[in-house]
Structure formats: structure tokens, C-alpha cells
Write a structure and sequence with these properties.
Blueprint (H helix, E strand, L loop, with lengths): L8 H4 L2 H18 L4 H5 L6 H14 L5 H6 L4 H4 L7 H18 L3 H17 L18
Bound molecules: protoporphyrin IX containing FE.
Protoporphyrin IX containing FE binds next to helix 4, helix 6, helix 7 and helix 8.
């Protein structure tokens, strides 16, 4: 029996090349934009390892090969980020880079918005510190 081609976000993005383009742009923006300097500063000087790992993670998360899992085990991203001070501001800086990376690398507007929203949820889940202006706690969401 022949298999029908599966339409995953990964394939809609153009597979490996598409996911590479997004991650490359994402870290180039993190390196360049003055508005995300605090985010840049919690990263190592050399961003190539982080870029490669985000590529591997997104590959599987988008429905392509589970590269991160194969090479580094279960992602457990929240746990892997615990040593980093991630508050609302850090989340927003991360999503700022992702917004621009998706805007420049994903041509289909519907797919772009779906990816943005899904990634926002992942980034929000990564928060592990209360914000200076929301001292009531890390899980307090604005109404
Ligand atoms: C959707 C949200 C996010 C995703 C999918 C993501 C993904 C990843 C992945 C896959 C890694 C590699 C993990 C490893 O080394 O084992 C990583 C590392 C890292 N992430 Fe994130 N991350 C997210 C949000 C954030 C946020 C909000 C920050 C803000 C501080 C952040 C900062 C870092 C840093 C500093 C590293 C380590 C880089 C290195 O040492 O090479 N991440 N992230």
C-alpha cells in the first residue's frame, strides 16, 4: 500500500531547510537586536550550539525527525531552563526574536500565526521567575 504524504507543519515549512532558516534567523536577531540584550547576555558568546539544539528540537516538535530526542534524550525543556532567570520580560524578548524570524521566513500567514501562538504557549510555560512588576508570583496571569 502506498502511503499518503503527511501534511505536518514541518513539511509545510519546507522540511529541514525551512526549519534551519527559522532558527538561523532567530539567533541572528538575538545577536543583533539591542532590545533583546538581556536575553542575549544569558546565552554563551558562541550561539551555534544553542542554534543547533533549537533546530533539532523544532524538527521533532513540528512533526519532522525527532532529532533532539535521538541525540540528547527527552527535551524536558522547562527543567533544562530552570537555571535561567526566565520572567515575562525574557519570554517576551524570546518571542520578539521568534516573531521576526517567522515574519521573514514563513510565507503562509495562517501557518505563521499558528506557529507563533503555539510557541508563545511553550515560551510562557518556560517562565520560572516572578517579574519585577508582577511580584505576586510566577503563575499570576494578567486578567
Ligand atoms: C518556546 C520557548 C523556548 C524553546 C522552544 C527553547 C528551546 C531551547 C532548547 C532546545 C535548548 C537546548 C537545551 C539544551 O542545551 O539541552 C535551549 C537552550 C537555552 N535556552 Fe531556550 N527555549 C525557549 C525559551 C527560552 C527562553 C524564554 C529563554 C530566556 C532566557 C531561553 C534561553 C535559553 C538558553 C540561555 C539556553 C542555553 C544555550 C546554551 O547554553 O547553549 N530559552 N532552549
Amino acid at each position: 500500500m502506498t502511503r499518503l504524504p503527511v501534511r505536518t507543519p514541518y513539511s509545510l515549512l519546507g522540511g529541514e531547510d525551512g526549519v534551519r532558516r527559522i532558527t538561523r534567523r532567530f539567533y541572528a536577531l538575538m545577536d543583533e537586536l539591542p532590545s533583546v540584550r538581556p536575553l542575549r547576555e544569558v546565552h554563551p558568546d558562541d550561539l551555534s550550539d544553542a542554534e543547533q539544539k533549537l533546530f533539532e528540537f523544532l524538527s521533532g516538535w513540528l512533526g519532522g525527525p525527532q532529532l533532539f530526542m535521538e541525540r540528547h534524550g527527552h527535551p524536558r525543556l522547562r527543567m533544562r531552563h530552570m537555571r535561567l532567570p526566565i520572567d515575562e520580560s525574557m519570554r517576551d524578548q524570546w518571542m520578539h526574536c521568534m516573531r521576526h524570524a517567522l515574519d521573514s521566513e514563513v510565507s503562509d500567514p495562517e501557518l505563521r500565526e499558528q506557529l507563533y501562538e503555539a510557541l508563545w504557549n511553550v515560551a510562557d510555560h518556560m517562565r520560572n521567575r516572578a517579574s519585577a512588576h508582577h511580584p505576586q508570583g510566577e503563575y499570576a496571569h494578567p486578567a
